[in-house]
Amino acid sequence: SQTIMIACVSPSDRDFMETLNTLKYANRARNIKNKVVVNQDKTSQQISALRAEIARLQMELMEYKAGKRVIGEDGSEGYSDLFRENAMLQKENSALRMRVKAMQEAIDAINSRVTHLMSQEANLMLAKAGDGNEAIGALIQNYIREIEELR
C-alpha cells in the first residue's frame, strides 16, 4: 500500500521550529516500511486444507459412481475397462472421421475431373461434327458442370 502525507510548512522565521518538526515527522513517516503477512492462524489453515481434501474426495467419489475408477479384489485402485474402452473408441472414432473427410475430398476431386473430361468429350464430338459453333460448346460445358454439381 502507499501512504501520502500532506505537510503544512511556513516560510516565516516565527514558525521555524514548527515547520522543522513537521518535516522531521514527515521524513520518519516516509521511512516506515510495511511488511505484508498472511493473517491466518493454524485453525483456518487446517480448515482450508480440509476443504481441499473434501473437494478431492468428492471428485474421487464421482469417478467411482461414474464407473471410471474401480477397486480390484486385492484392494488396488485402477481405471475400469469401460473407461479405457471408451477412450480407445473415441480415438478410433476421430481417426475414422479424418479418414471420411479425406475420402470426401478425394471424391470431390474425382467429380471435378469427371466434369472436365465430359466437357472435353462434348467439345471433341462437336469438333468432329464440323459444326464449329463455340457458343454451343460453352453451353454444353455449363450444362455438364451444373449436372455434376447437382449430384
From TrEMBL:
Keywords, comma-separated and alphabetical: ATP-binding, Coiled coil, Cytoplasm, Cytoskeleton, Nucleotide-binding
PROSITE patterns in alphabetical order: KINESIN_MOTOR_2
InterPro entries for the chain: KIF21A/B_hel_1, Kinesin-like_fam, Kinesin_motor_dom, Kinesin_motor_dom_sf, P-loop_NTPase
Gene Ontology cellular-component terms listed: microtubule associated complex
GO molecular function: ATP binding; microtubule binding; microtubule motor activity
Gene3D superfamilies with a match to the protein in the record: Kinesin motor domain
Coiled-coil annotated residue ranges, if any: 40-106
Residues of the Kinesin motor domain: 1-32
Single Gene Ontology BP annotation: spindle elongation
PANTHER family for this protein: CHROMOSOME-ASSOCIATED KINESIN KIF4A-RELATED (PTHR47969), KINESIN-LIKE PROTEIN KIF21B ISOFORM X1 (PTHR47969:SF32)
Family: Belongs to the TRAFAC class myosin-kinesin ATPase superfamily. Kinesin family.
Name assigned to this protein: KI21B protein
Protein source organism: Alca torda
